[in-house]
Amino acid sequence: MIFDNKGRKNEYDNILDCLEQTEERYKYKTAVSDSRLSLTWHELAVMSRKIGSGISRLVPAGRPVPILMEKSAITLAAMFGTVYAGCFYVPVNPDNPAERLKKIFETLEAKIVVADENGKQILESSGLLTDGNLEPVLAETLLKADVDAGKLAEIRAAGKKTDPLYGLFTSGSTGNPKAVVVSHGAVLQFIGHFTECFHITDEDVIGNQAPFDFDVSVKDIYSAVMTGAGLALIPKEYFSTPPRLLDDLCERKVTTLIWAVSALTLVSSLKGLSYRVPERVNKVMFSGEAMPPKQLRIWQEALPNAEFVNLYGPTEITCNCTFYRVKRQYEDKEKIPAGRAFPGRVVFLLDEEDRKIVAPGHQGEICVAGESLAEGYYRNAEQTAQRFVLYPVNGKEKERIYKTGDMGCFDENGELVFAGRKDFQIKHMGHRIELEEIESAMNSVDSIQRSCCIFDRDRNRIVGFYMGDMESAEVRRTLKQKLPLYMVPPRLIRMNMMPLNKNGKTDRDYLKKIAGEGRK
């Protein structure tokens, strides 16, 4: 049994308890819809139990189950089915190149991968099935399984709220992506606060923008599961044609947008709101990177009665740790605050000597304690120990905290203001990226001797520098086989020598100047 911040009992120890209660309350109400299929809560739950029964015959409880499928209502059933089997699901985007898929599956050491036909073809064509250690299982095959109610009940009875619910891969500084593992209890605690803070109810329709391997989608999915709200899955191709997207939002009567900043700004910058305004939308929440005030003003003017909220927090603390209700329009040069901590969280700043910073305007590393910290990185004790540490938050007993690597300060009103990355990790197009992972991929190219990547904040783009004989177009083609497209530098500059600073390290400040000169 867990308690919310007001001491009230929350009867859920497992996310499936929540799903089944919502199934009971809203049996024939639409739970999830995509461009081809709509499922009621009862249909979603029955499909999930079928898939769970099938998976339980193939994989022991407690194991990761990667799901290589395009985002759809059936994919959601496969995710919940994995949980019914006592395992934790790991959404894997089919757009990943073969080399990254290989690293993901090597990290998980998974026995099976749940796939659709497209996912199965990707696995076959990429050579990932040649060693025989990974078995693709089609979701449509699992849906034909008989529900084994006895086994599912036995698995559930053995479960704990600290059991993993999902794993999400983030960029890794060693060149290998890391899987953040989050428990049932962490999600139940956070979503309980989230839905209460923003008054999400069964009358809402949540327009899902984020892919399922991006933690923004966790808020969409579990806000719906906890409240009975409808979940409208928006196809990714709609975001390249704003009129089609806005027609979809209007036709499906979407009320709630919990989107990456990049998705909102794409609509506003392409003048989509001049075509049609989704007038039923009354909540717009954004995260992933800094929201440009100019773009936010366009949304505010189109939806004057909607609530706008800036959300902040890395995947490792379960979605978000702070929020800020935007109360006015901001000027272009102003920063929109990240706000204050959610209930159950403690957010504070540490200087380089790990001393707390409380004075307004003084920057420090943003750290988080309290509820809903991730369990750590799957099969990566070293990285877990580096980022999840013990610290005497209240000046007494040490407790587990997460050091985000983000810098921030408190303003005069006590609101947290984000101030960039401490290391070489960036937020770009809504994704968290380690520049060192891109460098590692570049360095693995035979014709490249050395590389360095910087982030040109003025132009919001990654710039890659390299030493080697290969032309930049060929380097880009090669990187597209190794990295997701959003990680491939749009600008590549060949160097005769890499500049060094006085410490003998690559002079990144000098490279930033070179990148800046290209704008003149």
Helix content: 25-40%
Beta-strand content bin: 25-35%
Oligomeric category: single chain
The total strand number stands at 29
The assigned structural class equals alpha/beta
> What is the count of helical runs?
17
Identify low-pLDDT runs.
1-9
Distance N to C terminus: 61 Å
Taking the sheet with the most strands, its summary is: 9 strands, mixed
Mean pLDDT over all positions:
92
Describe this structure in words.
With 520 residues, this protein is an alpha/beta fold. The chain has a 9-stranded mixed sheet. Strands 18, 19, 20, 22, 23 and 24 form a 6-stranded antiparallel sheet that branches. α2 (41-56) packs across α3 (73-84) and α8 crosses α9. Mean pLDDT is 92; it is low at 1-9.
SSE map:
Blueprint: E1 2-3, E2 9-10, H1 15-25, E3 30-33, E4 38-40, H2 41-56, E5 64-68, H3 73-84, E6 88-91, H4 98-108, E7 112-115, H5 117-125, E8 135-138, H6 139-142, H7 149-157, E9 164-170, E10 178-183, H8 184-197, E11 205-208, H9 216-227, E12 230-233, H10 242-251, E13 256-260, H11 261-269, H12 272-275, E14 283-287, H13 293-302, E15 307-312, E16 322-325, E17 340-341, E18 345-350, E19 356-357, E20 364-370, E21 376-377, H14 381-387, E22 388-391, E23 399-410, E24 416-421, E25 425-428, E26 431-434, H15 435-443, E27 448-456, E28 461-468, H16 472-479, E29 491-494, H17 508-517
Parallel strand pairs: 3-12, 5-6, 5-7, 7-8, 11-12, 11-13, 13-14, 14-15, 28-29
Antiparallel strand pairs: 1-2, 3-4, 9-10, 10-21, 15-16, 16-17, 18-19, 18-20, 20-23, 22-23, 23-24, 25-26, 27-28
Helix pairs in contact: 2-3, 8-9, 11-13
